[in-house]
Structure formats: structure tokens, C-alpha cells
Specification:
Layout: E1 3-9, H1 23-36, E2 40-45, H2 51-63, E3 70-76, E4 79-83, E5 93-97, E6 108-109, H3 110-118, E7 125-131, E8 152-153, H4 170-173, E9 188-191, E10 200-204, E11 207-210, H5 211-221, H6 229-236, E12 251-254, H7 256-259
Parallel strand pairs: 1-2, 1-3, 3-7, 7-9
Antiparallel strand pairs: 4-5, 5-6, 8-10, 9-12, 10-11
Helix pairs in contact: 2-3, 5-6
């Protein structure tokens, strides 16, 4: 049995004027944490994380796994959405991850991600961790580590990268992306927020992070090795998120069986 991971972090979004600051740190921290837990971790950082590279990396990682293997994919960057073209989304929108070359119209949609995650051998476990907008509510949690100043949403509105003739109506364009990733075919999805919220790019103790990644790793460090994914999720929220400055409710999607797996086992 092998354990492999791909950690993607994109701060630089050429042509959009919507750069982020904490995503590369997120990817490096996820890779370090997973390596310490026995994973072979690779990374796609900024210009490495084109749509083609993300598709190739995710596809080869999942399709190359054998029964009993565990695959983890982490993504920190912008999320976005486009109008649904094939009628499979109840809300009329397809969710997308934003590769480095999103400014050229390259978006990785949930409809494209699904076959990458389902093209796998029986018995392969796939976990997706997304610290991007598709994301709750308010006022609990712990703000003590948070640096002063407002955080930035990890949501790239369609008007920042789509051609004017392809844009949806102005009211809809202001809404964050929704939960298509939850149906993308992995066994588990850990997400930074609900389908009506933003995930926040911010700074803790002078170092940029994604709020969800920071608190997820902080919670993980306090758990015993026997802890399950459900235990981990309960440690993240509501103890750390949401807060009044970080109004995002982390989400976990997956079967009861998958939630009961030991973390990164």
C-alpha cells in the first residue's frame, strides 16, 4: 500500500488583478505534514499549476494508484463558477478551480474533475482538501492568532477572467461558487466553507495562510494518531471557525464509513 499526495498552491493569477498571498504557504505546509505522515508528496506552485498540469497531475496520481493506496489532493487558490451548460446543476452553475492560467480562460470545472477522481482502481481512497471559495455563518471561534486587517476572499468572480460576451447577468456574477466539488467523485471532501460563503486568504502571526488550512493543521497537530476524519472536522469547527472576522463554516462531505477512517492512514 502506498500513500501519495499532490499539493497545489496558487498566489499568482496573471491578467486578473486578483493575486492571493497564503496559497503557496498552504501547499508547502500540507506537503510537509503529509510527508511526515508517510506520503510521497509532489507540488504544483504558481506557474507550475496550469490547467494542463493540474489535469495531468491529478489524473496520473489517481489512475496510477492500486487497491489499498491512499491519494490526497490539496488545493489552495481561487474558486470560481460558470453557467451550467449541460443541465446537471440544480442552481444552474458549474463550480471551478482556478489554475494559474485562468486569465487565458482556463478553468478546471467540477464536470472535468469528476472523471479524474473516479478513474481509479477499486479500493483506492481519495481525499480532496479545498481551501477555496465555495464556502457559512458567523461569530464563534478563536481570533487570537489572526493578524489585524481584513482578509481576502478566495473567490475569483467571472468578470475577472471571462470574456464580456460570456458573462452571466450582473447579479449572479456577484455570488460565490457552489458545491459541485462535493459530487466530484472522491471519497471525502474537506472544504473551507459552505456553498454560499467565501474561504479567506489572511495572515496569522505575520505569515500568510488560508484560514481553513491554518486551523485545519493546528487542529490536526492536537489529535492522537487514532483520530478519524470526523474527529478532525469536529476539532476545526466550531472551536476555530467561523469567527466574526472569518465568517466561513468548514464542510465535510463523504459517507459515514469514509468519515470514520483514520486520518491519512
Amino acid at each position: 500500500m502506498s500513500k501519495k499526495a499532490l499539493c497545489i498552491g496558487i498566489n499568482d493569477y496573471p491578467g486578473t488583478q486578483n493575486d492571493l498571498s497564503g496559497c503557496v504557504n498552504d501547499a508547502n505546509d500540507w506537503a510537509a505534514t503529509l510527508t511526515a505522515r508517510g506520503f510521497t508528496a509532489s507540488k504544483l506552485i504558481d506557474a507550475q499549476a496550469t490547467k494542463a498540469a493540474m489535469v495531468a497531475g491529478i489524473g496520473s496520481l489517481v489512475s496510477g494508484a492500486a487497491k489499498g493506496d491512499t491519494v490526497v489532493i490539496t488545493y489552495s487558490g481561487h474558486g470560481t463558477w460558470v453557467p451550467d451548460r449541460n443541465g446537471d446543476e440544480p442552481d444552474g452553475r458549474d463550480e471551478g478551480l482556478c489554475p494559474w492560467d485562468i486569465g487565458s480562460g482556463k478553468v478546471l470545472l467540477d464536470d472535468e474533475l469528476a472523471p479524474l477522481l473516479t478513474n481509479r482502481a477499486a479500493g483506492v481512497r481519495v481525499l480532496l482538501i479545498s481551501d477555496s471559495c465555495h464556502s457559512g455563518s458567523v461569530t464563534r471561534g478563536d481570533n487570537t492568532d489572526l493578524d489585524p486587517g481584513m482578509p481576502r476572499a478566495r473567490f475569483l468572480p467571472p468578470e475577472a477572467w471571462m470574456k464580456p460576451e460570456d458573462l452571466p447577468d450582473a447579479r449572479a456574477a456577484r455570488l460565490p461558487a457552489v458545491g459541485g466539488l462535493a459530487r466530484s467523485g472522491g471519497d471525502l471532501l474537506l472544504a473551507g466553507c459552505t456553498d454560499t460563503q467565501f474561504s479567506w486568504d489572511t495572515s496569522f502571526r505575520g505569515r500568510p495562510y488560508g484560514a481553513f488550512t491554518y486551523y485545519a493543521l493546528k487542529a490536526l497537530a492536537a489529535l492522537p494518531t487514532s483520530a478519524t476524519y470526523q474527529d478532525w472536522f469536529k476539532k476545526i469547527t466550531p472551536a476555530y471557525l467561523p469567527t466574526n472576522q472569518l465568517p466561513q463554516n468548514p464542510q465535510i462531505f463523504g459517507t459515514r464509513t469514509a468519515r470514520a477512517w483514520k486520518i491519512f492512514a
